Amino acid sequence: MNLDYKCLKCGSDRYIVKTAVIPEKSPGLKIEIGTYYVKTCVECGYTEFYSAKIVDKEFAKNKKGKRYAKATP
Fold first, then answer.
1. Short-list 34, 41, 9, 6, CA closest to 20
2. Is position 3 within any domain?
3. How many domains does the chain have?
4. Per the domain annotation, does 46 fall within a domain?
5. In what order do the strands lie in the sheet with 15-26?
6. Could you tell me which Pfam families the record lists for this protein (predicted)?
7. Is the residue at 49 inside a domain?
8. pLDDT digit string (tens) for 15-69?
9. Is 9:46 a contact under the CB 8 Å cutoff?
10. What 3-state class would DSSP assign to 18?
11. Which of 12, 33, 50, 65 could form a disulfide with 37 if both were Cys (CB 3.0 to 4.6 A apart)?
12. Better pLDDT: 37 or 4
C-alpha cells in the first residue's frame, strides 16, 4: 500500500500524514494500543485512516524486492 494518492473527494494531491495511537479492544476484554497513519487532504479535509502494521509490513516487503543504487557525489 502506498500512501501517495489523490484525494477521493476533490482530486487534490496535497495532504498531510500524522501518526495516531488509538486504544483498541480485542476479544477477552483485553485493551491494546494500535498505531494508525491519518492522511488528511489539505484542500477539503477528507481524512483516511491506515493501520500502521499493514502499511509498514507492505513497505518492508516492497523494499526487500527492490535494489537501490547508491547516490554519487
1. 34
2. no
3. 1
4. yes
5. 15-26, 30-41, 47-51
6. Zn_ribbon_13
7. yes
8. 999 999 998 887 777 888 899 999 999 999 999 999 888 888 877 777 765 544 4
9. yes
10. strand
11. 50
12. 37
